Target: DUF1311 domain-containing protein
Amino acid sequence: MRHFLPVFASILTFSSLATSSLTMALPTPEISRVLLVQKLDCSNPENLPQQSMNRCAELSYQQADKKLNQVYKQLTAKLEAPRVKKLVAAQQAWIKFRDASCKFESSEVEGGTMEPLLFYGCLTRTTKERTKSLQ
Model:
């Protein structure tokens, strides 16, 4: 029994080290996503695999949303408080409409691999339209 305990402790130590090093060797989803973004060329997305096309559509939406937020902030800085309040209410209603409309539009292929592409494409298009109307 005396010899068993040190041997058992050694086995546990080595097995836990092997498990943790195996876990650390596997890429995390965040690292995989960063690597995907670094290697992704969205200049010609129609020649990419579907997952990459979806990611390009998401990145395009993020850029459009960033531009919209810049224009929105510039506009609110120019308006007086009563008009800012009305703009905020209008913008919140527009966001709900946009999201619901794009969910409906992409539901044509719901559950399919093209759903994110259609959803983000719709978000991008409507966000750019809203940006133009606020400018």
Remarks:
- Residues 26 and 32 are 10 Å apart (CA to CA).
- Confidence is low (pLDDT under 50) at residues 4-24.
